[in-house]
Amino acid sequence: MLDFSNIKVISFDADDTLWQNENLFRKTEQKFCTIMSPYASKEQSMKELWKTEVKNIPCYGYGIKAFVLDMLEAGLKLSKNKLSANETKRLINLGKKLIKSPIVLFDGAENTLKKLSKKYKIIVTTKGDLLEQENKIYRSGLIKYLRHIEVMSEKDKKSYARLLKELDVKPQEFLMVGNSVKSDILPVLALGAKAVFIPSKFTWFYENGDASKISSENFIELKEISQLLKML
Amino acid sequence: MLDFSNIKVISFDADDTLWQNENLFRKTEQKFCTIMSPYASKEQSMKELWKTEVKNIPCYGYGIKAFVLDMLEAGLKLSKNKLSANETKRLINLGKKLIKSPIVLFDGAENTLKKLSKKYKIIVTTKGDLLEQENKIYRSGLIKYLRHIEVMSEKDKKSYARLLKELDVKPQEFLMVGNSVKSDILPVLALGAKAVFIPSKFTWFYENGDASKISSENFIELKEISQLLKML
What we know:
- The structure is a homodimer.
- Chain A has a 6-stranded parallel sheet, with helices on both faces.
- Chain A is elongated and about 60 Å long.
- By secondary structure, chain A is an alpha/beta fold.
- Chain A has 9 helices and 6 strands; from the N terminus they run βαααααβαβαβαββα.
- In chain A, about 45% of the residues lie in helices and about 10% in strands.
- Chain A has 2 domains: about 10-20 and about 105-230, Rossmann fold, CATH 3.40.50; about 20-100, DNA polymerase, domain 1, CATH 1.10.150.240.
- The interface of A and B includes residues 60, 66 and 99 of A.
């Protein structure tokens, strides 16, 4: 059982841990498939888009601008270089709409952060596009509970080690809460720090991971964020 | 005259302070104008691109992905929605090429950082796309001299104040070195910290500012980065 007694810093992932995000991408993917329907089936369009996304991560990283460039590249391929100016425009506008989407907090997210912030140093550790992530945090209304915002280009062991050093905190004093086994849980456990996994309804295929295989006394899985309050 | 005696942290801007950057954007702008030549004069194309860039900063921020989306949007407008799939592809590829451009350090940049790092805590403070900036710093070979990398979404007084707090350093102990009056000099001087302006041959129109109007004993203008060694 996870021992919370010496925790000093609780770090929350942002997208799909504090607020809905992936569902917006899913909706946008559906719209992409509709725009591509003169050229390809829904299945072909999704497959090409996912392939393009993964291929471009080293070049573009994460975030909406990368996603729009991926949609355009996949669209050019699927249309065999026949993508019209109007279709290009529609894809760009899907991105702009996504950037401006309102933030929908998960139930209990604000109350949990509010209460925990009285006892712990609360931070947000997220990856992706710097401006997008900062804007979402500001718009979320949660900034008043946060003592630090860390946007990483990749959430790996090395990045978390650097963060812990920056925060001047020992691994056993650090708890990460998130919905991605790959980005929020495994690298944190590898450092000897603690991790709470809260699966979300939608998870990007690239972040999927099997939590059932994790056996660590530094790890626990919860159903919703407010359950943290009973344990901390 | 700038008093260097109590400086502890020297922070360098990255693009066009440590290495060439703006010249690559200028070359890409020329290529954009060539691709647009069936639709518009060079002057019209540049004007539309600049207008689009400034308009989209709140939405897209800075960096190459934003620049590509700006080129596409300006291209759609200039072509009156006739931009061909091939032209779209060429614009996307301009961006990919830009992202992969080799880093060309300015004369004396490495030697200056190497020598100063023996006496001072050297950091890089830059704005723009997180992944792009990190990748450039890693590829520059300068990482071994750096104790911290700060990528900001906007280099304003508030962001610098937060950085100084994070570094636990007083304004009079902090020196910023950069090529942008707007982003590297004015917000730093406003905090009571010190600033060295090194104008670069090319500066993005958005970053232009008049250094001749600055009268502060915390400020000096130098011609090249290696001149710092004579003063520090």
